[in-house]
Amino acid sequence: xxxxxxxxxxxxxxxxxxxxxxxxxxxxxxxxxxxxxxxxxxxxxxxxxxxxxxxxxxxxxxxxxxxxxxxxxxxxxxxxxxxxxxxxxxxxxxxxxxxxxxxxxxxxxxxxxxxxxxxxxxxxxxxxxxxxxxxxxxxxxxxxxxxxxxxxxxxxxxxxxxxxxxxxxxxxxxxxxxxxxxxxxxxxxxxxxxxxxxxxxxxxxxxxxxxxxxxxxxxxxxxxxxxxxxxxxxxxxxxxxxxxxxxxxxxxxx
Length: 254
Ligand code: MG
Ligand code: MG
Prior knowledge:
Layout: H1 8-31, H2 38-51, E1 55-56, E2 69-72, E3 75-77, E4 91-100, E5 103-112, H3 118-136, H4 144-155, E6 161-162, E7 168-170, E8 177-181, E9 203-206, E10 209-211, E11 217-219, E12 226-228, E13 234-236, E14 239-244, E15 247-250
Antiparallel strand pairs: 1-4, 2-4, 3-12, 4-5, 6-10, 7-8, 7-9, 9-14, 10-13, 11-12, 14-15
The structure holds magnesium ion (MG) (2 copies).
């Protein structure tokens, strides 16, 4: 498809979608506590999204059966909310998308349930910090690879695995657009992977998925849930961000 740059009017609508995602995630984070089921969080995501005049982006996307992706502990992404109850010490990843007048917003955050281990807490903080570093690299004239290099520079000193099987992406009138946005520098990229310069009007979902152990993942028998190969915890943060002449603008927070 090639890369589609957005006008400021289009970015304004994406900001509306992004704000809905932010508000829904804020509401869900308040509900996260030991004993709540993922199904209850899924219903809350539907309710809070629709209450704001938006629709849930991931419902039926490529056949996904629920309204939000919820992944716990060693689950990396694309977890299907079901009857599982959250327990004290779990690390839960909420990944939500909303659509407003045909435009998408996409954001994820990792939330501790009750009291998590120091190891899990550090993973969460480093992953959050790596996303902020990636966002700061989103300036006109830089390249896509500068985003991943910035993420990797934060993560690498800790020896964590950076997931390679899933990457960030362009976003707009479709939930996943070109270009791909790896969370690591170009040394690990496949040959011939495009590395365009960042231009004003480019809107990206940047989403580091960081593992305590190996970067390798596998998909469970449900066909959706991605887990770490070694069973160690994973963290995930994501924002939808517009490149502007005056710097990056995060659309999925106020
Ligand atoms: Mg997402
Ligand atoms: Mg995404």
